[in-house]
Amino acid sequence: MSAVIDTPAPSHAADDGRDRRPSFARLVGVELRKMADTKAGLWLLIVVAVVTVLVNAGVLIFGHRDDLGFTDLLQMSGIPQGFLLPVLAILLITQEWGQRTGLATFTLTPHRGRVVAAKLAAALGFVLGAFVIAVAIALVLTPLTGHGFDGVTANWLGRLFLGVVIGALQGFAFGALLLSTAFAIVTYFAAPMVLSIVASIWTSAGDKLAWVDFGSAQGVLFDPSSPSGTEWGHIVTTSLLWVALPLVIGIWRIRRSEVK
Amino acid sequence: MIKVENLTRTYGAFTAVKDVSFVARPGRVTGFLGPNGAGKSTTMRVMVGLTSPSSGSVTLNGKRYADLPNPGRHVGVLLDASAQHGGRTGREVLAIAAQTMGLPKTRVDEVLALVSLTPSEAKRRVKNYSLGMKQRLGIAHALLGDPEILILDEPANGLDPAGIRWMRGLLREYADRGGTVLLSSHLLTEVQLIADDIVMIGRGQIVAQGTASELVAGAGTYVRAVEKDELARAAAAEGLVLSPVGDGFRVDAEAVAIGRIAAKQQITLIELRPADGGLEDLFLELTADTQRETFTEGVTA
């Protein structure tokens, strides 16, 4: 906001933002909007919310209420969200290539790293939103259960959130690496399956495979009990391998490649 | 002003653009002309940073594109009108860009009106747009930030004759207000109607550039005769080379020289004039050896 009033107006009158770089917050806002303004994106957001509600309601109606508590409800929400949020994160990045909107996006913001960072922030925003919805639903429904808030700790809540975040980040990383919606989604779901099949066949290598088996390592985060030191180690190594590595390669590729 | 200096872009062994240099000036419409696959789009993508050059550079008003803080406010770009999310409405496409550039929402309505897209059309999803409507939306997108420079790749594609006329007026006015316009086309007549300056490219290299009138002036003489072969032979004897254009020839000589040869050899001329009938002859001639279709004498497709 400029307080100078009598600056001679250039040919472009009343123009303040002409030479101002769009702020990061604005780019994040644009990315959030771009997720919600298409049918596919909007429906995915609606499905995340609706399925979260349905799963909780279903558990209460068909399960044994007396055996349930806040932790079970939140874990239930984590299952569909664990599937859907990574897909959302994949879409955030791959739609620029699938729909070729990257041409407009990257000419308006030539620093592609900023765009990717804004998308990453938007993805985290959606994950946080979904988690808040899940917690809110669980809070509302918990009084109807037998176990109430047994076993709920800040640590456990944090681990749960970390689990959902890492899952979404993995989707994002696969999207950035592959730049194709279908390819990224298939790879995202197939890779852990292949690994667990390998693990079940090649039993002698079980201990070593635990350091690369993403699904098993991250699954521990959703357990009520605290992971052991080794399990934390597994979480770190598998995250480096399946999240950090594809993300770094993906960003490198996005920054260098030709946008057509 | 757009300044392209010694731009080269290679893909492995293939050279898409080779040592291209030209300048597009403010207040003028520069036509970037060439057959399909000549390197126009690659050059334009390099200008706006979507493709990195193998060597050489491009500056826009003295700055590299990547160094423009808010590039949409300085350079309006239309590279491919189809490259929009089909699920978004036309208005939403513009609204996203306006939000990115920090423009007020009213600007979206202004440019929609400018390109004659009605409010009801703007509410439709882009996948239901005709190519002409997509093209108008793309032009609106380029004009959104009220930039000083416009870079448009084949903007007339898909526009009907009335649309082309409208675009011509729009770009003319834009240049008259001091804007720099670079537009590409593979259709010479289109460029001829709009452009003040012409840059011709074939197989990645500039084959001719100058003002439209300069390029016409160097076009020589156009001649048509009943006895084509005899004319060609007689002219060759005088040291003149006839290059086939349409069903006649273009030759670098005064009309009078050709007339004398014809009179001496009793050749029946049906047409003899300065080759100013259009840049078409020049275009076809300049790009004849770079085109996929070989241009054969006397054969009309």
Helix and strand content put the structural class of chain B at alpha/beta
What is the ordering of alpha helices and beta strands of chain B? EEEHEEHHHHEHEHEEHEHEEHEH
**How is the quaternary structure best described?**
heterodimer
Please, what is the CATH homologous superfamily of the largest domain in chain B? P-loop containing nucleotide triphosphate hydrolases
Tally of distinct domains of chain B: 2
* Mean pLDDT reading of chain B: 89
**Main sheet summary of chain B:** 6 strands, mixed
Main sheet summary of chain A: none
- What amount of the residues of chain A lies in strands? under 5%
When the domains of chain A are counted, the total is 1
> Do you know the CATH topology of the largest domain in chain B?
Rossmann fold
The first-level CATH class of the largest domain in chain B is given as Alpha Beta
| Rough outline of chain A | globular
- Give the low-confidence spans of chain A: 1-11
Strand order of the largest sheet of chain B: 5-6-7-3-8-9
Tally of individual helices of chain A: 10
What can you tell me about this protein's structure?
Helices cover 72% and strands 0% of the residues of chain A. Chain A has 260 residues and is mostly helical. In chain A, helix 3 packs parallel to helix 6 (154-178). The model of chain A is unreliable at 1-11 (pLDDT under 50). Chain B is α/β, with parallel strands linked by helices. Chain B is built from eleven helices and 13 strands. In chain B, the strands form three sheets. In chain B, strands 5-6-7-3-8-9 form a six-stranded mixed sheet, sandwiched between helices. A four-stranded antiparallel sheet of chain B has the order 11-12-10-13, with helices on both faces. In chain B, a hairpin with a 2-residue loop joins strand 11 (243-245) and strand 12 (248-251). In chain B, helix 2 (90-101) packs across helix 3 (106-114) and helix 3 packs across helix 5 (131-143). Mean pLDDT of chain B is 89; it is low at 295-301. At the A-B interface, helix 1 and helix 4 of A face helix 2 of B.
